[in-house]
Design a protein that fits this description.
The strands form seven sheets. Strands 1, 2, 4, 5, 7, 12, 13, 14 and 18 form a nine-stranded antiparallel beta sheet that branches. By secondary structure, the protein is mostly beta strands. The chain contains five helices and 32 strands. Strand 1 and strand 2 form a beta hairpin.
Length: 490
């Protein structure tokens, strides 16, 4: 009888917990302390509502849309030359918040585990953040300094080239907790949190800070999310955040694609993307009222249309789409590409902006607006470009090691390379990589061409070819032309 009573009690507890989850689901918390979003021109914006200034390196990091998570992601080369930071030395409110309980979150792809580097960190004999291969080789850790030493919790299941969602929680009961992919790795007690001082009061993305406020321990990989919360998230809230970010249905009306390093905040709503492709209309006034929805258009870019605004790639909805796409840097005039556009709320004002050889007009409040998100980009691993003909007028992102032993047809301008060309050799021919160098390339998939000329370039000879079944061109990033310098990551 006693055993039966115990079983009934356990069943009742399980049912009660399940009903509570159904009736009172965990609400995904908002990153209200800091929420860094990356813009396709390499700048970054805080969309937490606090409007904190995010400084980017010069040259800026490379940023592109990560289709897996539906958010822009920044790539860091591990050289210490590409990074972001938030200087909080004069931000008393921020210092007050991190002096108590708080949470850090970082979604990253780790490209190397054999050396120490830091994705999201503010430590210099003090502070807090995520660290790779310092506490323990080949491992990711969350750590804080308690005045005497670093206190850390470390995960032991890392692998290069994979994405990890890391959450570090500083709790009011003087413990830290570390989560990876929604699962608790462990906890550790600490006495007090010693914060950085002076020039070290900088929170870096893509590296850590030294005593002079400069970057060190440069990160090599990709960062999709770098956020902070003004409270200690619970286990359930961490799981909710991980589930939300993993779904790929991330709200991106704050996922800025523009060129401003400021902190403009737009209306947040659940974003849906239309998978159908429509020939681009002259403007998007007909889409007014569809705030938060994304649409994909086939756009032939031009420079001579009328546009208003352009800050953060947001334009009045009566702006010429083909010109706005060119103005934003998403396309080059004359190119035909698929372009993703998001309908956003009126911004209140639209300043004039000169970029990419076009000057937009200024305007005050308007009835509607749209944001240029960019050319659809898919991350792939197979370098055979002929397999991606179905992605015509889109881009693929791929890591390639340059070589000179393959056969290629054509060149990176004009009609491009025929898609039976060896991509690794084409990358050297086009000047994006040297033999043996590994880099991330953005390759634009195009349709057939009638001919491809033989060209000698960078000590590599391409061959002449007739009509091709498909073509491609290599780009440094989604918003640049093929003639700009490459990104080399080794």
């Amino acid at each position: 009888m006693k055993k039966l009573f115990t079983i009934i009690t356990l069943i009742f507890a399980f049912v009660s917990a399940s009903l509570a989850t159904i009736l009172y689901p965990i609400k995904t918390p908002k990153a209200d302390l800091l929420d860094i979003r990356f813009n396709v021109d390499g700048t970054a914006t805080d969309v937490s509502g606090k409007k904190r200034t995010i400084v980017s390196s010069q040259p800026r990091p490379s940023v592109a849309l990560n289709d897996k998570y539906n958010l822009n992601a920044a790539t860091f080369t591990g050289t210490g030359k590409d990074f972001y930071f938030f200087d909080y030395s004069a931000d008393k409110k921020f210092i007050e918040e991190i002096s108590g309980d708080f949470t850090m979150e970082c979604l990253m792809r780790i490209d190397i585990l054999s050396k120490q580097h830091t994705p999201f960190c503010s430590t210099n004999g003090s502070g807090f953040g995520f660290d790779i291969s310092w506490v323990s080789k080949n491992h990711l850790s969350f750590l804080i300094h308690d005045g005497n030493k670093y206190v850390a919790v470390t995960d032991k299941s890392m692998a290069e080239g994979k994405y990890y969602h890391a959450v570090g929680v500083v709790r009011p009961n003087k413990t830290i907790s570390f989560y990876v992919n929604g699962e608790l790795i462990g906890t550790a007690p600490f006495k007090t949190l010693k914060l950085p001082s002076g020039r070290s009061q900088r929170l870096y993305v893509g590296c850590d800070v030294n005593g002079n406020g400069d970057p060190e321990y440069a990160f090599k990989g990709e960062i999709v999310v770098a956020r902070m919360y003004s409270k200690a998230l619970t286990n359930e809230e961490v799981k909710s955040v991980y589930k939300a970010i993993s779904s790929g249905n991330n709200s991106s009306s704050n996922n800025s694609s523009g060129n401003s390093g400021g902190s403009t905040t737009t209306t947040t709503s659940t974003t849906s993307t239309s998978t159908s492709v429509t020939n681009a209309p002259a403007n998007l006034t007909a889409y007014r009222g569809k705030v938060g929805q994304r649409f994909t258009f086939l756009v032939k870019a031009k420079k001579d249309g009328k546009i208003w605004g352009g800050k953060n790639n947001i334009y009045t909805d009566d702006s010429d789409l083909a010109t706005a796409s060119c103005h934003s840097g998403t396309q080059v005039a004359g190119n035909v590409d698929k372009v993703v556009v998001e309908i956003v709320a009126d911004q209140g004002s639209y300043p004039s902006l000169t970029q990419n050889g076009i000057t937009s007009n200024k305007y005050g409040a308007w009835k509607g607006a749209y944001k240029i998100i960019g050319v659809p980009t898919t991350e792939v691993t197979d370098p055979d470009m002929s397999k991606y003909r179905s992605k015509k007028n889109e881009m693929v992102k791929i890591r390639v090691t340059g070589r000179t032993t393959g056969t290629i047809y054509g060149k990176n301008t004009g009609n491009g390379y025929s898609d039976n060309s060896d991509l690794a050799t084409a990358a050297v021919h086009a000047g994006f990589l040297k033999p043996g160098q590994t880099g991330t390339l953005f390759v634009r998939i195009k349709g057939p061409e009638d001919s491809h000329e033989a060209v000698l370039s960078n000590d590599v000879q391409s061959r002449k070819y007739g009509k091709s079944g498909g073509t491609f061109k290599i780009f440094r990033s989604r918003d640049t032309t093929p003639t700009l310098p490459p990104i080399v990551t080794r």
